[in-house]
């Protein structure tokens, strides 16, 4: 297994928020975490990435990544892991970029921080990566500022940066929920293409069980900090066991007479 999370519990300022979460992920697999706002989805992936807010603390459990317990990592080991072996995409990756610096200089700096490439090599490699994310005129994008791009384009830049070092694991927190439905579908499709080619495993956190059904091999349903249902996505969609999962599925809008999750 690439990742094995067992009995994970997390507290914020001594208040237990996430309790006894178990999940596992093999190379190239896609796991979706769904559940209502506040159910602890983001907390789980932040704990895996070692980036809980400062009042947050893992109060129990284990997180094995390639067989090593991440909770024993030194700060140095975390910084070697983040960005190269494991990477994260956020709801609005544009907000992670400095608004008053050109995209190219930020992308090049990011590459040079994590590799011995020269600036010139990094620039060329960054453009190639933007092209892979179907961004037109990568040379112009490199020269532009984040605010000059649409939300979908900024999100593609975020995915391109996250995927640059072919991470083994991509953690995606509501990566498309700020986008309109058509752009959501395109960005999800492109992100999956690039991950499938590199055999990158994905954990995607989403409100949208339709997106989860489309993307994932495995599904974890969370409510109030606990897992209420988990298993193969197709099984859960066809035969949900918990009342809460049934509720989530019932809330999926009908599209053209057919369920979006169908
Ligand atoms: N920094 C923090 N300090 C204290 N409590 C927090 C902090 N961040 C989150 N929480 C609490 O932890 C709980 C879980 O939050 P989390 O963001 O993990 O949920 P979520 O399922 O990802 O929600 P959403 O879908 O809205 O992002 C919530 O009750 C939230 O109020």
From TrEMBL:
Pfam families with a match to the protein in the record: ABC_tran
Lineage: Bacteria, Bacillati, Bacillota, Negativicutes, Selenomonadales
SMART domains per record: AAA (SM00382)
Signal sequence interval, chain numbering: none
Protein name (Swiss-Prot/TrEMBL): Oligopeptide transport ATP-binding protein OppD
Assigned GO CC terms: plasma membrane
Transmembrane segment boundaries: none
Molecular-function GO terms, alphabetical: ATP binding; ATP hydrolysis activity
SUPFAM superfamilies referenced in this protein's UniProt entry, alphabetically: P-loop containing nucleoside triphosphate hydrolases
Nucleotidyltransferase recorded as keyword: no
Record family assignment: Belongs to the ABC transporter superfamily.
Keywords: ATP-binding, Cell membrane, Membrane, Nucleotide-binding, Transport
Membrane topology label: Peripheral membrane protein
Residue stretches making up the ABC transporter domain: 3-249
Main location, first listed in the record: membrane
Native organism: Sporomusa termitida
Subcellular compartments: Cell membrane
InterPro entries: AAA+_ATPase (IPR003593), ABC_Ni/Peptide_Import (IPR050388), ABC_transporter-like_ATP-bd (IPR003439), ABC_transporter-like_CS (IPR017871), P-loop_NTPase (IPR027417)
Coiled coil: none
Domain of life: Bacteria
Gene that encodes it: oppD_4
